[in-house]
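> @MW can you paste both from yesterday?
MW: sure, first one:
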Amino acid sequence: RRDMGEAKMSKQQHNIHTHAHAHGAVFPADMRVAMLDDGIDATRLILSQTGLSDAPSSDSMSEITAAHAASATGSPCLLNRSAIADSHERKRIYYGLLILTVLVYFDSGAIPACLPEIAKEVDLNYTNQAALGSLVYAGLIIASILAGPLLQRYSARDIILSSVSANIAFVYLFSFSQTVSVMFICRFLLGFTQAFLNIYSPVWIDEFAPEQYRTMWMSAYQAATPVGLMIGFLVSGLISRVNTSIFTWRLAFFLQASAMVPVVLLFMYIPRRYIDMQRGHTPLLGQPRAQTASSSSSSSHARQSLGSIDVTNMSQLSTFLKHLKTLFECRVYVHLTLALCSLYFIVTGIEYWITAYITKVLHADRVVSIVSFSVTAITAPIAGVFFGGALTDRLGGYRGERLEGAVRLCVHFGAMAVAFSVPMGFVPELIYLIPLTWVLLFFGGAVMPTAAGILISVVPSEIKAFSSAVSIMAYNLFGFFLSPILSGAVMDAFDDELVGLTWGFRLILLWSFFGFGFMVLAWYAAGRQMHQPPLDYMHNSGRLSSVSDMLNMLHVKVQHEHEETNAVDSTEKPMEKRKHSVSC
């Protein structure tokens, strides 16, 4: 540590002297000692007294002082304090990202809960009500295309602060809006400004999270989105139920924006080096983070997801189309992605219209329906995710020869979801609807861990991040965006409002047949893939699924060449036969 500190101090000291001489300043020996001994403030004071207006930054001075302290004392205590401070800073940023994510998705849960009051006040038909939900995902899709190049070229901290600040402004504007057009513009721009935080937060966690906590941090972040949705649904539903001059649906969005303001103000005081990634290598936070092979791989995938394939760059367009062609050739990936799109279509539609359906069609109490659905929507998917993941692991996982069995398990879960979803549109009371909804969401959640793992495992390793981005784009377009707008158009096709609401809700539930059909097609494709000869399977998948597959391939090839050697005509000259054997 002493040698490293001395080397670093010598280099930084040389840089300061060079910087000073370039401006005509000369430091005596005692002043050079004082620069390093008296700390950052004294150093910058001396530099200012010599007439240097563009003195080195505080970050550079911190490095110089820390290096000198380590070399002079031989003790790593100062470096340890720096590392502890960096660790605390990471945690503060992480907690801030969690809080921002929960608050940003608050309005996505608040809209369904307040939809009857909004429609009554502004006079919206079902299609316009659906647009309030779908326009958010339209903005998110468009912003996702632009987010990669922007985050690579500019400071991520500045982009996140700007986008979240704009999100707060549009939430405030939506809470005071009186016309449909202003509401639509606000909802589209809310989705657009959400995208940057949504895209960069997982990348930041992958880069900056401590090695031993990275998976836990990522899991907690993934849970922040549904938590924000359910908090928004519950709080907004209860506020709008009071329906006084103060407690209206507008108050819920005003509170959301107000809660985000102090979090953004705290982020303004965080240095860029704690948030931005250094281009080309892993960012440094006081101390270099040790990387294993797996963390380095995941970091490269995260950087790729930020837009290393930029469709606006013509030189990279051919790479984009090549990767897209590779994905479409993988039938398991295509069918399973469409199956998950159907699943998100159903879940989004149920959440969006459940309040109006329960109160208008089933004539149930508003508070009871909001509380019961909130509990169902939180407990059922979480229990299903843990059940599906544990059962898949119990049966051997989803890789290699277990691929077909894992897809078959998804088919079984899908069949159970269909069996309980169809009756939901025909039961007459809330007491029957809630248990059926719980079972549907449970088996839908059970599909998720297995299907998500399969989608990553069946594509070549060099396009895993690209395949993940394409899947997310498909979920947003054919699931979250399509569900409200299509069901709303079906509701407006009927003259009777209640009949339209009933059949629009039934359309969402009957959509489960599409999901089940795509799962069956994925099962068939997995069976064909698993029964292909090893060489054909590895060629088509673009990878070797395991070391045993590679050994099997070599064994088959050597055996084939050996048979060709034995088939050489016995009249062949000995030297030619020997050459043929050596080539084999």
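MW: second:
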Amino acid sequence: MLRSLVGSEMCIRDRLCDGALVIVDCIEGVCTQTHTVLRQAWTERVKPCLVLNKVDRLITELEMEPIDAYRRICMIIEQVNAITSGMQLKDLFQNDTNGDTQVQEDVEDEHLMFRPCAGNVIFASAVDGWAFSVKNFAHLISERLGIDKRVLRQKLWGEFFYHPKDKKIITNDLGGKLQPMFVQFVLRDLWRIYKMCLTDSDNYSEKIQKIVQMCQVDVPPRELNSKDKRSVLQSIMCKWLPLADATLDMVVVHLPSPVEAQKYRMEYLWPEGKALAQQHPDSLSARCWRAVTECHVSEEAPVVAYIAKMFMSEIGRQERLLGFCRVFSGVLKDQAPMFVLDDRTSQEPHKTGLFTLMGRHAEPISQTVAGSICGVDGLSASVLKTATLCSLSDPNDQVGFPGLVNLDLQAAPIVCVALETTDPSEMHILVDGMRRLNDLDPGVDFYVQSSGEHILATAGEVHLQRCLKDLRERFAKVNFEVSEPIVSFFETVVDAEGSSNTTSVEVQTSNKAITLKLRVIPMHEELAKCIADADDSDLAEVGSYASIHESTS
């Protein structure tokens, strides 16, 4: 599930999964994080489905009319599809090696677009516990309208209108007299239920009973008699349109199985393996390539797995270091010897323990098959952040056996803080904890500046807070002080066309009252070298001299 995740965490989830739920806020709409999530899913060949969340806020906070909410939702879906279409066009032009291939007019493959009538889009309110797809409402209103539900699934979304007199679906709104069917038969009912449940009235209990009968749900009287009107609403909606049912139905129908996904994903995840398999059909790489592309689950197939992250987990009363692992082929068994392909120090196999990841806990298991995600123990000495595991190794194989490609982190660690312990005698404990955190988290960087400060670099403020919490509670367990975040900014000067091949730029303010002209000239080499070689005390003297000079002037 891809939301406002840290860049490294998002990459890890994309590598381990074959499908994703992209959640877009109906209030905020498409933002920068949405672009990043979709681009990462496209890069990793992960098939996404769209969840439009917080539809309830369109009713309760923005107080939109159903037709206005429909237009807003249409705009969001169009923007998401534009992002997907742009990435597809980019790939088409990059793959055009000859330069004379004509691009087809209709490059938007329908299976890549988000379309509510196709079922890969659901509308949800996570806080109220409900969600639905077009298919759900097509089934609910098909008997009322006397129209086949398969026809309704195609016509319930889009510019289709229901003519009440002729009792048929038309594409003309009759000069604005008719509203789209999605507004008429879906949004209006939602708006009516929300207003009836959240508005005080003399016959409130009768209205609630009427809603329950209309939705044909069984709600306990204790929940209906609650004084909290929002609680009453949630009790009805989660029974009428369960969030879990709608989400699971979309996942099962539209997201690929491991057998289907690995056929096209492995070309990106393991390009070197494919090249070696084509050049040397009888090599070890070719055998493993055939196993992972076909997702073999037999015990005779070679086991190939990928460690996307190392993390600490509480097992029993001890904390142990586990690898977040996806099995791509074969049957991975407990205590089976596995070779770490990325280990340059040792070619000896490692006996691995297996665990199923149950939320915050890990339970030991005897085996797991291709397509599964599990926790792997016993690799702390050989795996640094990520690694590829294989059950086969041939020292006489001259072809070689490369691992899967490394994670393509979308966000570099740029938010830096300096850490220092309250007790100087505990500084070495903090340093060991920071090094361990650096080894485990792909999005963390740790280094020591020339001034002696120990710098922790993370991908963002949320990522930084999580790393500091891990240092305090797990890796270091000492008290330390944190400096203000330091973000490095790199600037340049460009003209109106976006070119930096110029020495001057002229811009105007929005009201055209002020014109700014900036001229840039190269800094003298000796001055640049002097600044680079200066320490903090020299720069402080220059700053104090400048302040004194400015005050005297």
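> thanks! The two ends are 60 Å apart (CA to CA).
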